[in-house]
């Protein structure tokens, strides 16, 4: 009798566990991914093979269920985020993935420009406009702008890149009004928007939108980058280093396995990203020698400082190197001794 009761309870428990595994919570869980070598993904025509490698680092993310949520609660390098911190309330998973992939495309084009210019190769990057990729509910731009609008001017001044537009907004105060000119369905429109709080900093003015510069690029020699399954802009720095290395005769990796993270803009500046502690863990698990981290000009709580804390916590021998620009990374590598066998 007891045996039958036990088996019935066990069966019910298994069925319940299976069901709960497929019931998602309104959260995402992120955890360390891995460090992926870029050479198989990037091919510059005539590029050389190198002894070392440049690697991008990833963070794995998925919708939480009761089990992954509970495990993340007690795991130091797993983080839990409400869905509205990852994607807009009315944004589907497909739209979110689409946005991430387009951000990667923009990041790749910028990385190509930076690397080719540094190597003295022919390259031209032309901005075709700044696209709105999301509009957050309840914030300044709601009802004024839509996803897909292409912004061309702010206060009558041409806006070539997302960074330029954000710089102008960043110089203003909450309550200031700006005028935006944009294209929607091949028709030019103008709207006035009173700036509200920035969604990530209530002391700053913001529009409550995500932006992406739409670039068109030509270069010589030709290059192929296969990044179909990689989303977001955070691999920009590492793509630029891999491309630059293939354009040169020498191997600037000096035989080391080098990882890192950081978006890169058209000025070659390395920008802050999320999840750097998890990327430090991912790089260490992959046996990386050197890790480049955005320094943010030494700002308090910078990615570099976060990386140092994580590196010390996991007791890694990996060298953490702060960089503000692509040039910083190249200069560090040029001064590096070749790795001994």
Automatic annotation (TrEMBL):
<dbReference type="InterPro" id="IPR014721">
    <property type="entry name" value="Ribsml_uS5_D2-typ_fold_subgr"/>
</dbReference>
<comment type="similarity">
    <text>Belongs to the peptidase S16 family.</text>
</comment>
<feature type="active site">
    <location>
        <position position="234"/>
    </location>
</feature>
<dbReference type="InterPro" id="IPR020568">
    <property type="entry name" value="Ribosomal_Su5_D2-typ_SF"/>
</dbReference>
<dbReference type="InterPro" id="IPR036034">
    <property type="entry name" value="PDZ_sf"/>
</dbReference>
<dbReference type="Pfam" id="PF05362">
    <property type="entry name" value="Lon_C"/>
</dbReference>
<keyword id="KW-0645">Protease</keyword>
<protein>
    <recommendedName>
        <fullName>endopeptidase La</fullName>
        <ecNumber>3.4.21.53</ecNumber>
    </recommendedName>
</protein>
<keyword id="KW-0720">Serine protease</keyword>
<feature type="domain" description="Lon proteolytic">
    <location>
        <begin position="226"/>
        <end position="336"/>
    </location>
</feature>
<dbReference type="InterPro" id="IPR027065">
    <property type="entry name" value="Lon_Prtase"/>
</dbReference>
<dbReference type="Pfam" id="PF13180">
    <property type="entry name" value="PDZ_2"/>
</dbReference>
<dbReference type="InterPro" id="IPR008269">
    <property type="entry name" value="Lon_proteolytic"/>
</dbReference>
<feature type="active site">
    <location>
        <position position="279"/>
    </location>
</feature>
<dbReference type="InterPro" id="IPR001478">
    <property type="entry name" value="PDZ"/>
</dbReference>
<keyword id="KW-0378">Hydrolase</keyword>
<feature type="domain" description="PDZ">
    <location>
        <begin position="100"/>
        <end position="184"/>
    </location>
</feature>
